[in-house]
Structures are given as structure tokens and as C-alpha cells.
Amino acid sequence: MHRGSSNAAKVRELMRRLGEEARGAGRVYLVGGASAVVMGWRETTVDVDLKLDPEPPGVFEAIARAKDALDINVELAAPDEFIPALPDWQARSPFISRYGAVGFFHYDFYAQALAKIERGHDLDRRDIAAMHAHGLIDPERLTTLLDIIEPGLLRYPAIEPEVFKAKVQAAVAGLGGTP
After folding, report:
1. Which of 50, 77, 108 is the last residue of a domain?
2. Does 1 reside within a domain?
3. Do both 66 and 87 map to the same domain?
4. What is the structure's pLDDT at 100?
């Protein structure tokens, strides 16, 4: 079922509901458009993408109630489903807030940027530029992180490593960095 778009207020209300209704501790990471609307560089997003790690007990029941009450689309999706997980991604995931025993964070912006570069949609390119403009990513660090995860690309057969590397180099150059 298609639901309406989500703005920052809806995403924050979702966070509040999940935190208050969860039966225990955990972490919820906002990804993609959810991060973009909360950070303020986009007005709306079609889907609120989340990663649960560790999963708060009772969160799926809370998601089911919230998506209907708020008329929003919620999906479980994160960069580590599309590219290898970056080392220390949790440490680079900025804290947003806490509701109940649940902490809410933005998923590591470097991982988000690399996954968006790999996908390559127009909206992804605009999001990467916004991440850079907000000081959330450094172009040269993207190249370094790609080098670190490159051996793990074998586990992602849809990715052509040389093509991905060329996309990252082009994105870095477009952000004013050295590819």
C-alpha cells in the first residue's frame, strides 16, 4: 500500500512512537531520505528507511501501528545491504535523540554517500552534494573508505569494482576533492 510522503515532523513523530512503544533498549538508524528531511536539506521523502542494530524489542509492532497512524512508508534498508559495511560506521553515526530506551542516529554519512554513488540516481547526487555542503563528508575520506572496503566488494556481485571506483572518483572530483 502506498502511503503519503514524510516530512521532518512525521519522521520525528515516528521516532517518538517507536521509542515510547519499544519494550527495551536498542538503536535505530535513519537512512537516506529520512536523514535528509531531519537534517533539513529535503522537505519530504517517500520512504523512511531504517536500520535496527541492535533491534529494540517490540519495534516491529510499533512500526506497524505508526505507519498506519502517520500514513508513512517504512522500510528496513541500509547501505550495508548494497555495499560492504564501513569499519567503525557506528562511531561515525551522529546521535539525533533518545526516546525511552531507544537511541536514534543518522546512519554513517560516508556509508550513505558511497551507497548513493553506487546507485547513481539524480536525487542521490543532490543528497551527496548536500552532505558535503553540510560538512558531513570529506571527499578524500570517501576514496580512503572505498579503498578499505574494496576487497569486500566480491560479496556484492552486482557491483563492478572498477566501475564503482570510477563513480567514486567522479563524485569526489565533482565535490572539489582529489580523485
Report:
1. 108
2. no
3. yes
4. 97
Give the model confidence (pLDDT) of 101-135 as tens digits. Answer: 999 999 999 999 999 999 999 999 999 999 999 99
Q: Tell if the pTM clears 0.85, that is, is over it.
A: yes
Decide: 165 and 147 in contact? Cβ < 8 Å: no
**Position 173, amino acid:** A
CB < 8 Å & 24+ apart, contacts of 48-51: 48/6, 48/10, 48/11, 48/14, 48/72, 48/73, 48/74, 48/75, 49/75, 49/76, 49/77, 49/78, 50/74, 50/75, 50/76, 50/77, 50/78, 51/76, 51/77, 51/78, 51/80, 51/107
Report pLDDT digits (tens) over 22-73: 999 999 999 999 999 999 999 999 999 999 999 999 999 999 999 999 999 9
Would you say residue 179 lies in a domain?
Answer: no
In eight-state DSSP terms, residue 79 is: G
Give the closest residue to 167 by CA, choosing from 71, 83, 75: 83
Residue 34, domain extent: 8-108
